[in-house]
Amino acid sequence: MNVTIPCICPPKDGQPRHDEDTVTLRDKLGFQAVAAIRWQTEIMRQTDPRASFAELFGAVTELYILYGIEEWTVVDDKGKPVEVSKPAIRDRLLTTDQAQIVGDVADGQYAEVMRPLLQPASTSSPPTPKIPSTSHERNTSPRHRTRSKPSSISTIPTAATETTTSSLDGDSRSSPNSVTAA
Predict the structure, then answer these.
(1) Cys-Cys link to 67, which of 32, 33, 48, 78 (CB 3.0-4.6 A)?
(2) What is the pTM of this model?
């Protein structure tokens, strides 16, 4: 994606070399760039746990610019093209107001990278630590279940059973069933 910015090249005879420069951003950041951005933001969180969202966003935007620029039309004081490199980007672009223009476009271009980066930082409280279990752990191997025998409930005689009821005074009384009453 091409981004047009006011000229950031050194002036020639006190005048801008040209009206504008074109900065070309990669369509997509590669694995190494994404990993570097993730690690850098994690290091920032670890070294400065009170870093604000604004600081994290600013750091990520700067990294988008450093890793996202593929080519540009910037020339040096002799009019020769300046090779795209992190030091050149820092010296020529990040020291100017035009970095904001490129950063805004890069933020939109690489937004899918930012969401997972800042997700953990969006919680208002730290994650709850895992507390180890205090119950005794058995060091046994899992047992295989054996199939139980079919129920033989139909072979239990029921003809001589009695019904038991409890009274309010706590005594239980048996009432004869039809077999024993006869």
Answers:
(1) 33
(2) 0.62
